[in-house]
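Need tokens for this chain, all 279 residues.
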Amino acid sequence: MLTYRSTRGDDASMRWLQDSGHFLFFDLETITIQTAQSYLRCFREFEQWAYDGENRVLPAPPGYQPATPDEVDSECALLGRLASLHMDREGEPLISRPLLMHLVAQLGRGRLARVRSLTDLYEQVVDAHIARDLDGPLRSPRLKDGTTGPILVRTAMTRVALAMQARGEDVFRIGGVQQLTDLLTRPEDGKPGGEGALTWWSENPEWTGPADRLVPYYGECFRNKDSDPEVEELLEFGLLRRAEDGIGFLHDSFLDYFLGVYALDTIEARCFPEESFPG
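Here are the structure tokens for all 279 residues:
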């Protein structure tokens, strides 16, 4: 059995595998762009065999259509372009190519057609996860709403990212279910001087908004009742995963994505003096 890690090396799952004594650990050589493209071609062939062949073995996702050879060529060209855009002066990749391969492979042609950059890629992956999860058997009225639901999910994920950032550099987890519940239902506890154990609010009101009109990342209070279990249902969404050492994102790199979206949204909504920017 061969497995690749998608999280930091001291992740609880990684420690368990290492301590079990059943796995050997290796650092892989950099995957070439050509190898990544070959993987994508093989992945599309596997999809067609599994979803569309005479002896299909898996139920096809809604709306699945096998990619044509020309479409596969276009996807491989996109993968190669994204991989070549993010390299250092020595030609070493700045983004994990196995991760890049995986993100591209899981998107259908409709979403890949909207990708021009790495930011676009993450946006489409996030949108695909949100659309899939919101299509499930939900009970929360606001999450089921086609307009409100996606906004609430992005608000929750961005708040999780802000809380992770507040815990310190190279931290990719928040505490367990109770801390996530408090974070989403009692955001005011995270302000400077608040009752929470973690201060994750910005001290600059330019970022949080005025007290009577807080931006949703700080002001939205999620619901957690039997009849309206927003927090409970968000915990089951694919963008989050639970481990022994806390709750993190599907991949650690989504922390940077959600922090970047937060910063861009805030900058576009306001005109900041230069001294307003944190750090």
